[in-house]
Amino acid sequence: MTTVTDLTEGKRVVICAGPGGVGKTTTSAAIATGMAARGLRVAVLTIDPAKRLADSLGLPELGNVERQVDPELFRDAGADPGDGELWAMMLDSKATFDEVVARHAPDEETRDAVLSNRIYIELSSALAGSQEYMAMEKLYEIWAEDRYDLLVLDTPPSRNALDFLEAPNRLLQFIEGRSLQVFLAPTGFAAKVAGRGTSIMFSILKRITGVDLLEDLSDFFGAFSGMVGGFRERAVKVNELLSDELSTFLVICGPQSEAIEEAAFFRGKLREQGLPFGGAIVNKVHRAGDVATDETLGQLERLLGSDLAERVASNYEDYRLLAERDRRNIERLASELGTDQVIQVPYLDRDVHDLAGLEEVNGHLFGRANDADVS
Amino acid sequence: MKDLLNKRLVIVTGKGGVGKSTVALALGLKASELGKRTIVCEVASQERISHAFHRGSVGFKETEFRQNLYGISIDPDAAMREYVLLALRVKAMRDLLFRSKLFTYLAAATPGLRELVTIGKIWELALDERRVKGTKPYDLVILDAPATGHGVGFLQTPRTFANVARVGPIAAQAETLHRFITNRRKTGVAIVALPEEMPVNETATLERDLARTVGVSVDRIFLNGLYPNRFDDAEIQALEAGLAKAPGTAWDAIAAGLAASRRAAAQQEQIARLDAKTRAPVTTLPFLFQPELEADEIRTLAEAMS
Lengths: 375, 306
Description:
- The complex is a heterodimer of chains A (375) and B (306).
- With 375 residues, chain A is an alpha/beta fold.
- Chain A has 18 helices and eight strands.
- Chain B is of the alpha/beta class and 306 residues long.
């Protein structure tokens, strides 16, 4: 039986990716707590704006720096914190962007020009891929400090898992854009364009956007142009870290066919980009036994009376069909991923939202529950 | 439900994986059957509607799926092009602009612009007198909004742009869009959620954020995936007693019954929490045990919405 320990053997960076709504945050937290309980110093990073990780780790809030989860809370939840440590942080995308700008700006003037630009202030969080880029940026920064045995990254809740891989390139393309050169005029866009005699173009654009917006945009793009080199260098380093053999991507998904399709697609993209794939974790898997035969029905009737027996059988059949569907989908997933490194976490009776719940999930991720089944 | 369907625009929002698209479609189906000319708008090219009705991709084209029910997938590039066509009446100017590398770059690179023109298209669809030639007005426009995380930011775009651009055509347009989104009489907001601990917390946060940062109040919360309460307390006791004596598959079946009732009970607790934490009325929708046939699923949910 595959366990998370197998999937992360020899790894120091684990990136949990997958479509939205499949329990990525919970799984990331469970992996981190499980590895901490095995004696490692672990940091888990989330950028989920819904503060789920903070909730599930019993932290009042998470900021842009790591905080240690109180070992007492583990004991309260019936888990052994061991010699390990668990740290957690929630990425503040905007604050990280500010830090990145401050680092890459050639001088204070450029830094202040960007940080005070209205478009940057109001819209940098809307910049395509900025959240994802900043998640990777922060991951690299913490990695470079070398304070942890293992980093677990819970990727942003993007529409599809792929957005996460492509986002940094989108942001880089934006910053590097060749058309950017057009905006490099020291006196601003309007003067430059007018000076070139293309004032018609300007007046057309003005009709659509308004003149203030054009000036602000011009300043915004102009200020960024000085930082292209810094961003590019850093992106290369981040990419090196992601493709390093010390890193691994785990695909987290549910057992529904859509989630499975997306997971398989994501696996293909990882291969294309030469990124390491560790395996898949399928959450909320329905499990059931054999079809209820006439003999089973007879037994149920003797125990429960015919009316209740019939309803119990019909409920069982509903869940058995769900379990069948899940089993087929997971078989398909394994064959499409070309691996048997698939961990299944069963659909639990209660949803997981605290350390005790994480401990239960860990029974499945780290194999204890499965061992118990066997014995 | 009537109050929601009597709006001109209904924004269906919620986090990923809660069945938001399916609920948006079910709402669309329901409205169309009440005789309302209805269009469901997708914004992330998921093509869920065409998938559900077994059609090819709809793309940026108003497509009729059945009587009174239309769908469109709003591609920001196409919406941008349409916006320019409508803003610039002189063809020579438009051609100049479309050929200009500068415009192409600005259009692609300006943060938030794609969201703005997407909302602009939704507004256009909801106008009494449509701007696009040869089109007819709709009674109801349903927006399958991007999953939250992104959701509040998406709806906030018009106000942000109005602030950034200050004056000029974009500022004026953004202001119009913001007024439209926040017009309670015309625009309704529904959140789709699941009866689980974290989704309930997130729904409460989302309701508050929508009010605070966008300035809209939530008209209804759809709580999706509700398990039936199959066994009463006496029956649960009988199941527990039976479990001790049941062999093999009979044990599995009784255990499944007990697990189902535990889940149903846990969901009831979450419904109570949601009621306490949120202001909008809640409509529950059933969990569907054969969820792979999407058209049937949408039909069942639409019926559950009465």
